[in-house]
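Long-time lurker, first post. I've been practising inverse folding by hand and with some scripts of my own, and I keep getting stuck on stretches where the structure tokens seem ambiguous. Below is the full token string for one chain I'm working on. Before anyone asks, I'm not after the true native sequence, just a reasonable design that respects the backbone. If someone could post their per-position residues I'd love to compare against what I wrote down in my notebook.
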């Protein structure tokens, strides 16, 4: 009996020396080690109930929002992470077959995903993988029919990842994040436009802007001798229910409202329900596509949008003024649109009836707040087609047949707010859009990614300071100072506003 205290002491000592498992690996068949270690991620995990409680840390409290934990981890501005995607040969051939039958396919196939950040790997087997994009869709490898190897001609293409597509549990997420969008830098030889725009919007208080950052991408078809390095991609947050839920405390209230993806010709000037559709995984692309409440809530969502469009296009005078103040935060809408115009987004709602989301915070026919959510910002910063995005009058940005913004700006009170935001964002001395500040951020991003841009596809092999080749103003530059620098031109245009 006298030996008992000694034995207990030894056991307690050994228990206290047990190492923590800080490698968040989900079992899979990947065995490679991280290519390039960087800063380790936060190793903290759930507390051991036998451990003594840690004292609170007031300056950095633990988050109770798993969505935000994952977003902060994935969109860490100081890290260049890697995605390694392996697709079984049969699944890859199925994907190619889907594309050959209909290039607009939204069908998923299965893949295994490994995400590497610093010294930490996360493997998510049996994830969903599909081709994404609108006019930018491409076949992942050239030719037709089944996978051709050796001698595969790989193509850059946009990718949708849905970690929970086939298995719905916590293990099939990336720290709580279920979906991500991987985009190649189509029409952006400078590898920066969309990353810059979303970063700029968030700096300007547009909290509806999605998170976006850089990532390196590796792809392998099972049976091939090795991975294909696809180079530097953009990883982007998807606009869906988790996106809504993660911003509930900022203004969305909840994720239970009606979310619409709006594409050309979604001018909010025609309430014909033939332009409405639902997200049903078909290849249909209606101008207004309902993304939430697509089953039992469809009828109410359709009625709400139809009434909304009728009022946007039909109300005038004081009736419109009172109504628009009731159904939206006009100040925030004008902040959002000012940021949109500052970066030169012409392929938008006002100019081209395209590329935005609408969110109604409830399904009630009349009692809601709506938000216009910015989307798809690669054709910006001097890449334009319909207008001169640097010199166009911000007060006459687009087609007034798309009435929402033009009507709002017809009221002097709202016009003054809009102009003040334009000047704050582009013309103030501390603006993040000023030439010096913008170039500093772009060069920092380029320093991060430039060693990794060259890739095995042979496409988009270098960073070039130029807009898209098809644009109407090929003279614009971002990094070269002078008369054709987009930041200088845009700032001068906004400074001249009265």
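-- Answer (accepted) --
I ran through it position by position. Result:
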């Amino acid at each position: 009996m006298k030996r008992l205290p000694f034995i207990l002491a030894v056991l307690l000592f050994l228990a206290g020396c047990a190492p923590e498992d800080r490698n968040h690996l989900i079992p899979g068949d990947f065995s490679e080690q991280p290519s390039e270690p960087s800063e380790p991620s936060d190793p903290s995990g759930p507390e051991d109930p036998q451990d003594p409680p840690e004292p609170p840390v007031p300056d950095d409290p633990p988050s109770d929002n798993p969505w935000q934990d994952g977003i902060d981890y994935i969109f860490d501005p100081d890290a260049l992470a890697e995605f390694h995607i392996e697709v079984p040969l049969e699944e890859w051939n199925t994907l190619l077959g889907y594309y050959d039958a209909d290039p607009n396919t939204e069908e998923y196939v299965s893949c295994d995903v490994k995400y590497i950040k610093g010294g930490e790997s996360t493997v998510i087997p049996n994830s969903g993988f599909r081709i994404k994009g609108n006019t930018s869709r491409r076949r992942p490898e050239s030719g037709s029919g089944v996978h051709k190897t050796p001698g595969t001609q790989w193509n850059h293409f946009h990718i949708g990842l849905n970690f929970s597509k086939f298995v719905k549990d916590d293990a099939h997420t990336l720290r709580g994040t279920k979906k991500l969008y991987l985009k190649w830098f189509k029409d952006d030889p400078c590898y920066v436009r969309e990353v810059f725009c979303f970063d700029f919007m968030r700096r300007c208080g547009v909290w509806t802007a999605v998170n976006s950052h850089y990532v390196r991408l590796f792809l392998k078809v099972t049976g091939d001798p090795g991975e294909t390095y696809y180079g530097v991609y953009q990883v982007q947050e998807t606009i869906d229910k988790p996106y809504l839920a993660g911003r509930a405390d900022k203004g969305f209230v909840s994720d239970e409202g009606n979310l619409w993806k709006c594409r050309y010709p979604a001018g909010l000037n025609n309430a014909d329900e033939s332009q409405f559709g639902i997200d049903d995984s078909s290849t249909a692309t209606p101008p207004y596509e309902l993304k939430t409440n697509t089953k039992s809530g469809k009828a109410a969502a359709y009625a709400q949008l139809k009434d909304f469009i009728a009022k946007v296009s039909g109300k005038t005078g004081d009736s419109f003024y009172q109504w628009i103040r009731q159904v939206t935060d006009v100040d925030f809408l004008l902040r959002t649109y000012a940021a949109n115009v500052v970066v030169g987004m012409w392929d938008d709602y006002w100019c081209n009836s395209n590329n935005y989301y609408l969110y109604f915070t409830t399904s009630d026919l009349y009692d809601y707040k709506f938000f216009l959510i910015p989307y798809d910002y690669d054709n910006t910063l001097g890449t334009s087609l319909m207008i001169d995005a640097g010199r166009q009058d911000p007060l006459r940005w687009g087609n007034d047949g798309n009435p929402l913004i033009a009507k709002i700006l017809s009221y002097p009170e709202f016009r003054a707010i809009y102009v003040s935001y334009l000047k704050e964002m582009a013309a103030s001395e501390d603006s993040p859009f000023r030439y010096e500040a913008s170039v500093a951020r772009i060069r920092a991003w380029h320093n991060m990614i430039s060693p990794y841009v060259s890739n095995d596809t042979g496409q988009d092999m270098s960073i070039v300071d130029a807009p898209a080749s098809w644009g109407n103003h090929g003279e614009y530059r971002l990094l070269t100072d002078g008369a054709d620098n987009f930041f200088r031109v845009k700032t001068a245009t906004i400074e001249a506003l009265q």
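A couple of notes from the structure itself: Residues 328 and 398 are 21 Å apart (CA to CA). Residues 298-314 form the longest helix (17 residues). Happy to go over any region you disagree with.
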